[in-house]
């Protein structure tokens, strides 16, 4: 394991610490375009900070429109040959990237923790999860089948053949800086597309590390390109990717507001757009539920990555018959299981929030709730560890008019509301205008079927979980074993299929 002192140095030294073991290095101040490590044309850089201590860990190229156009052009040129590479060969490239990521897993996990603050056990889990996309799509690349459709004419045969759609613009969030890229990139490469990656400005190092893996795997120049930028240049790069006619598809994971903007920009060129946007996930516990299981589920769903996930529980709805018992058990579990600190430290389960703006949002939500009548059971303020840390917080007596019911908190705040009937629970859960995931606990089989059908989140709720707490993984053992094992979950398969299909168009062939 790297020492804490090394992690506080610049990013290039983090990599040097592993150089002999993994031959893993990324040049300081460079990004990856057309198979080369290059600086921004104006030679400007921006700092990447460790949110746990505020130290600068790297200076990254602050790219703009010029570099974006260069990356798209490189991807267009590479597409001419990459789309004709056989499925077997593309599968081999992806398999090599899987093997390299697993070989370098410890290094990559430290990178995530250093730039994003995630506890190291969670970072290690993300690397395994991210690698599984390379593995799965390396196998799926061989199964790009077409369709034979019955013709209405006796002398004709109708065939539909899947072809790569073109250059994929990939825009990713900071909270899963490895897995959100590998899921999109692996799908694009398997389909025969090339890509331009715009990583989040808070966590670009993981994207550059993936580019290094591609370089080591001998992926041809231009197939994978990374355009890094500061927060001020990010909107113009996103807009250019959407409006560039040489970009065929946009895949974005992030906030709903940004997703709407990207969709608007993409209309001018009528692009295929895939959006995974933020939500306001309800977590419902009925009287019939196993309370111990429900509390364990709430702990993972709420406090994973310090509450900074798009499918994270945002409002907890508990039926009045078990309300007091649930709150008491949840408070006990929080006090025993949650340890706040730098993600690199052993046993830490709650790291820092990504930046000061995130902390201010959490503070605003808590203060609003308390001001409108919520009762503070635990926490409620910035943690003594530092300005980016927030105390694990438990609120009771949540009301519909509180901000936390209408907005994503994205922090370690568990807010609990009481409800009386199943009908009321559905009304409260479905009141949000956005939804991505929903959770509920019940031992009543009839209720399970009813709720799974009626939990809709204004028709936007993509995934419903019954008596379980994670979409992509199963958590084994106690909290300190969190995210060490990653078998494939059915919901992940659906996501992976959606990520794959956006990279194709169906080419119609009529044979006489």
UniProtKB/TrEMBL annotation:
Signal peptide: none annotated. The keyword Oxidoreductase applies. GO terms for cellular component: mitochondrion. PROSITE patterns: ALDEHYDE_DEHYDR_CYS, ALDEHYDE_DEHYDR_GLU. Its EC number is 1.2.1.24. Belongs to the aldehyde dehydrogenase family. It comes from the Eukaryota. GO terms for molecular function: succinate-semialdehyde dehydrogenase (NAD+) activity. Keywords: Oxidoreductase. CDD domains: ALDH_F5_SSADH_GabD (cd07103). Residues 37-469 form the Aldehyde dehydrogenase domain. The active site is at residue 276. It comes from Trichonephila clavata. InterPro entries: Ald_DH/histidinol_DH (IPR016161), Ald_DH_C (IPR016163), Ald_DH_CS_CYS (IPR016160), Ald_DH_CS_GLU (IPR029510), Ald_DH_N (IPR016162), Aldehyde_DH_dom (IPR015590), Aldehyde_DH_Superfamily (IPR050740). The keyword Oxidoreductase applies. This is Succinate-semialdehyde dehydrogenase, mitochondrial.
């Amino acid at each position: 394991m790297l020492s804490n002192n090394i992690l506080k140095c610049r990013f290039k030294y983090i990599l040097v610490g592993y150089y002999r073991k993994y031959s893993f290095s990324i040049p300081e101040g460079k990004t990856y375009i057309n198979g080369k490590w290059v600086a921004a044309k104006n030679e400007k850089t921006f700092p990447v900070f460790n949110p746990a201590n505020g130290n600068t860990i790297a200076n990254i190229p602050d790219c703009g429109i010029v570099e974006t156009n260069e990356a798209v052009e490189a991807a267009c040129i590479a597409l001419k040959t990459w789309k004709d590479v056989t499925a077997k060969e593309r599968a081999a490239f992806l398999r090599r990237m899987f093997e390299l990521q697993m070989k370098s897993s410890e290094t990559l996990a430290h990178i995530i923790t250093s730039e994003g603050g995630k506890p190291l056990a969670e970072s290690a889990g993300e690397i395994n999860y991210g690698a599984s996309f390379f593995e799965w799509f390396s196998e799926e690349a061989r199964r790009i089948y077409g369709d034979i459709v019955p013709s209405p004419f006796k002398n004709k045969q109708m065939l539909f053949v899947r072809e790569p759609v073109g250059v994929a613009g990939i825009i990713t969030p900071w909270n899963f800086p490895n897995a959100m890229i590998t899921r999109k990139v692996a799908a694009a490469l398997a389909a025969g597309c090339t890509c331009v990656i715009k990583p989040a400005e808070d966590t670009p190092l993981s994207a550059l590390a993936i580019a290094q893996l591609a370089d080591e795997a001998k992926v041809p120049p231009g197939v994978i390109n990374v355009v890094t930028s500061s927060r001020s240049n990010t909107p113009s790069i996103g807009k250019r990717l959407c409006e560039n006619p040489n970009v065929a598809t946009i895949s974005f994971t992030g906030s709903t507001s940004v997703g709407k903007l990207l969709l608007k920009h993409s209309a001018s060129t009528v692009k295929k757009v895939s959006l995974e946007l933020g939500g306001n996930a309800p977590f419902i516990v009925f009287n019939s539920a196993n309370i111990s299981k429900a509390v364990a589920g709430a702990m993972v769903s709420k406090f994973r990555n310090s509450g900074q996930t798009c499918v994270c529980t945002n409002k907890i709805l508990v039926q009045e018959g078990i309300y007091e018992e649930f709150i008491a058990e949840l408070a006990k579990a929080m006090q025993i299981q949650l340890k706040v600190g730098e993600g690199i430290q052993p046993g830490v389960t709650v790291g820092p929030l990504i930046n000061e703006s995130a902390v201010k949002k959490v503070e605003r939500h808590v203060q609003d709730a308390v001001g409108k009548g919520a009762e503070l059971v635990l926490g409620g303020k910035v943690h003594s560890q530092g300005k980016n840390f927030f105390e694990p917080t438990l609120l009771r007596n949540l009301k519909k008019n509180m901000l936390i019911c209408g907005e994503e908190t994205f922090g370690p705040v568990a807010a609990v509301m009481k409800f009386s009937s199943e009908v009321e629970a559905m009304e409260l859960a479905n009141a949000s205008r956005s939804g991505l995931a929903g959770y509920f606990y019940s031992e009543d089989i009839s209720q399970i079927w009813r709720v799974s059908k009626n939990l809709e989140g204004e028709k936007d709720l993509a995934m419903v979980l019954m008596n379980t707490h994670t979409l992509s993984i199963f958590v084994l053992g106690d909290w300190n074993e969190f995210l060490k094992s990653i078998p494939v979950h059915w919901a992940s398969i659906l996501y992976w299929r959606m990520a794959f299909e956006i990279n194709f168009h169906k080419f119609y062939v009529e044979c006489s």
